[in-house]
Write a structure and sequence with these properties.
This protein is α+β, with helices and mostly antiparallel strands. Helix 8 (213-237) runs antiparallel to helix 12, helix 13 (384-397) packs across helix 14 (401-407) and helix 15 crosses helix 19 (476-489).
Length: 637
């Protein structure tokens, strides 16, 4: 194993792979080497060439090594095929990802509670990991931000501190890897899958997202108009002061009044330690501040509280989302992808979970456009989490009625809707074609059930989920009835919940992700329910992303060669490709690779992919084809 680290010029807006200054190496046999960027090319190519100079295939480790690989490939573009090959051959791993996987398995990801009941936060920088494992401190301040000053200076003229700092990082990475190896039971082969995913996701971030200035200004104006309207309504009702600030005391009184009218208890936040300590037994039920979050307000179905909830969303959009969109008009938005406990990703800044309900038709997504001369190929997996949960049941119990329905090409929401209204599937299909209101309402309720119940939601939370996600109003009794029909339609979930419940019977358990062996510790029942199918979907999509990125960057025979992934949203890929006659083939190849990458993870419920070409990133975009059946770009205008 050889630890590799780079020192670079500073990251700047629009530049996530800045110029290389030097490469440092540390090997298990004790070699320590430092190369100026002008002298490093031969050694780097040798390390990544299969077989190496002496017929030996080197394995490389780094801390956030995806960054280093992107920097090296930017410096020497011909290195890119070797890097992809090394990742594919499980020859590159990452101590940062290994640490995260270990902590996820132990149930202490990002933080844990110590014996005194205090929360201890965990960081994943090289310095933080080395301090935990090797009990030594790394000095990360002396030269870290100044290497650009040495880019044109030969190594023998560098200050000794600058040379030592660079070598120390490689040595520390190797020492960290060794200590992780002493208890690597949670790592398994998944460390290499996650390293591959981190690499293509970092390349995606390096390319980034651009926005259209005119569209952003239209969106901003619409948000400002809606915000002004909401403030006027709330000022007239006394929930917003004349200076535009919210009167939370008045809003809490309104919430109490509405809940009294509805005959329900007022929802409260968890009480503070001080409140618990000072309260009498009789007064504990009134502890905790009254909830005024969006879900709680909307769950009352009170028009004024719903506007109050929308006010927060509009204010956040104007203060956070609009500036982000504006930044994308001058330099690409370059999010950092991070690993979540389920195996899914999050991004900072957030580009994966933008609101879709704000101001129509010009929503946030439609501000995102391809670069000049490019067009978007956009593809997503159809019903991916229904397919992955069906695969989990099939693998674990040997049967799944949901699998049968999906593989038969049936609409699982309509299948359940027909049970709700008491008709055959063929009749339900006919009634839906005739826009029958009863079957449409039943299908919407079934959709909420199919997406809500697999995660183990209780009835109260399910009612909230139905309202927040689908604007379906249900009582808890409605939810109970709906779940009974849902379990009759998909009986495998009786086994699923019993199986997960046995794992979490003491309140928290450790699950092992099917297909990859990744573990997640300290799981609650609902976390475990969600992790099995969300994790499987994430693993499938990440495998596909590596294939897509490889085709874009190195496979000159691929219709996708020269294209770039612009964004990745859990089960959706947004790819910029040339706006020419080859765009339809690029889009179809994107869909094919998504199926190819996901197939090994869900072999019994084959994935399906829906693909289109578009001139904006939009929820409204639909596949459009010419008279020859070839895809043509959709446009909002």
């Amino acid at each position: 194993m050889i630890a590799l680290d780079t020192e670079t010029c500073l990251i700047q807006p629009g530049l996530l792979a800045p110029p290389l200054v030097c490469v440092s190496l540390a090997s298990e046999i004790g070699d320590r080497e430092l190369y100026h960027h002008t002298k490093a090319q031969e050694t780097v190519f040798e390390l990544l060439t299969p077989g190496g100079p002496d017929g030996e295939a080197f394995a490389l480790v780094g801390h956030n090594i995806a960054y280093d690989m992107a920097v090296l490939c930017t410096k020497w573009p011909d290195l890119m095929p070797l890097v992809f090959d090394a990742y594919a051959a499980d020859r590159i791993t990452d101590t940062m990802l290994r640490e995260k996987l270990q902590h996820i398995a132990l149930g202490v990801y990002r933080s844990y509670e110590n014996t005194d009941g205090k929360t201890v936060k965990l960081g994943y920088s090289l310095a933080a990991c080395v301090a935990r494992h090797c009990k030594r401190e790394l000095n990360k301040e002396i030269y870290r931000l100044n290497y650009s000053e040495l880019i044109d200076t030969p190594l023998d003229e560098w200050p000794e501190g600058a040379r030592q700092y660079a070598i120390d990082d490689a040595v520390a990475t190797l020492d960290l890897w060794r200590d992780q190896e002493s208890d690597g039971k949670h790592l398994l082969a998944d460390q290499y899958r996650r390293a591959r995913a981190a690499f293509w996701q970092h390349l995606t971030a390096c390319w980034g997202i651009v926005t259209d200035s005119a569209a952003v200004q239209r969106f901003k104006q619409q948000i400002e108009d809606e915000l002004a309207d909401a403030r006027k309504i709330l000022q007239d009702a006394g929930l917003v002061r004349k200076n535009g600030t919210r009167d939370t005391a008045a809003a809490k009184r309104a919430m109490v009044s509405v809940c009294a009218r509805l005959g329900r208890d007022v929802e409260r936040n968890d009480p503070t330690a001080v409140e618990l300590r000072e309260a009498s037994e009789e007064g504990r039920e009134a502890l905790g501040s009254i909830k005024l979050d969006r879900g709680t307000c909307e769950n009352t179905n009170d028009s004024l509280l719903c506007v109050y909830a929308e006010l927060s969303s509009l204010m956040k959009c104007l203060s956070t989302d609009v500036p982000l969109l504006e930044s994308g008009t001058t330099t690409p938005i370059q999010p950092r992808y991070d690993l979540l406990e389920t195996g899914r990703t999050s991004t900072s800044p957030n580009v994966q979970n933008w609101p879709t309900g704000l101001v129509r038709p010009s929503c946030m997504r439609e501000c995102v456009v391809p670069r000049p001369g490019k067009v978007f190929a956009i593809a997503d997996y159809g019903q991916i989490e229904l397919r992955t949960v069906a695969q989990v049941c099939q693998s674990q119990f040997g049967y799944s009625q949901l699998r049968v329905a999906l593989n038969a090409g049936l609409d699982p929401h309509l299948e359940m809707a027909c049970r709700i209204v008491g008709c055959k599937y063929e009749e339900g299909l006919r009634r839906r074609e005739q826009k029958d209101n009863e079957i449409e309402r039943a299908r919407q309720a079934a959709k909420v059930a199919n997406f809500g119940f697999p995660g183990g939601l209780g009835f109260f939370r399910f009612v909230e989920f139905a309202k927040a996600q689908y604007n379906v109003l249900l009582t808890e009794e409605d939810a109970r009835t709906l779940k009974r029909v849902w379990l009759e339609t998909w009986p495998e979930f009786n086994d699923y919940f019993a199986w997960v419940g046995a794992t979490c019977e003491t309140g928290a358990g450790t699950i092992t992700q099917l297909g990859v062996g990744r573990q997640r510790g300290n799981c609650s029942f609902t976390e475990a329910c969600n992790s099995y199918f969300q994790g499987l979907a994430a693993d499938a999509a990440c495998a596909a992303g590596f294939l897509i990125s490889r085709a874009c960057y190195v496979d000159k025979t691929s219709p996708l060669f020269g294209s770039r992934i612009s964004n990745f949203i859990h089960d959706e890929f947004v790819v910029e490709t040339n706006d020419d006659t080859g765009a339809p083939e690029a889009a179809e190849e994107l869909a094919r690779l998504m199926v190819t990458g996901a197939q090994p993870f869900i072999p019994d419920v084959p994935p399906i992919v829906e693909v289109l070409l578009s001139r904006q990133w939009s929820k409204r975009a639909k596949p459009m084809r010419d008279t020859r059946g070839r895809l043509i770009p959709w446009s909002a205008t």
